[in-house]
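Example 3.2
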Amino acid sequence: MRRKSSERFWEEEEFKGFYDALVRESSLEEIARYPQHGSTTRLMHCVAVAYYSYRLARSTKLSFHWEELVRGALLHDYFFYDAQDGDPAHKWHWTRHPHIAADNAKKELYLTPIEEDTIRCHMFPLTVKPPKYREGVVVSLVDKACSVYEFFSRRAPYPKLRGEMTASELVSSRNEQPSPGIAFLLPEMAGKRL
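Structure, written as tokens:
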């Protein structure tokens, strides 16, 4: 059954509101300085994971904690270094970074148990502990899908988002106003609406 465009609009406004609130409370947009899976920035990756997790969860008849799902997804890779730089200190990064991201987020924000579990368990099954909550399961699955897309689209993933936003715009907006329009660009990244 197709959703009414008014329902879709309010859902996108809700997602954008969650993003804007988190940007005001944290250093989230600073992760735009770091690469993720080739030419994708870490912020672009996190926003895509959050948006598609939100869209997937909205398409089900299950109940979710919407803000916690989005916040956990936006913060799932909240670390401030280039994991692909060859530094020996980043050995085993792929299994250690969920805890680093959660610890970084807890330094700036209060995390609910759902948000913390989402961040710490998003790399399952590469990490031993599976997510406890359905929000974490959705984020873990969507993170894998976005990572595969980014890997195979290394030269130009998320073309509409890339064309509208640059890392410098995002970082400079932190002290002024949240980045405009981010939620509205995401559905077109894959060339169609979900």
